[in-house]
Write a structure and sequence with these properties.
The protein is mainly α. Helices cover 82% and strands 0% of the residues. Helix 2 crosses helix 3.
Amino acid sequence: MDEAVDWLVRLQGETVTADDWLAFDAWLDAAPEHGEAYDVVAAQDEELKRLSAVSPSAVV
């Protein structure tokens, strides 16, 4: 799971390169669980972004 988090952060960075994407694809291809872990991490990231956009007064 840690590697999936590392990839998410790396790919969302301002300095991501084509080589980064190629390395990410190779990592995904290396094992099915890599893709599964990345999907979980990406979904959690999207949920955190969604929740951070909610007004605190809307939660109460």
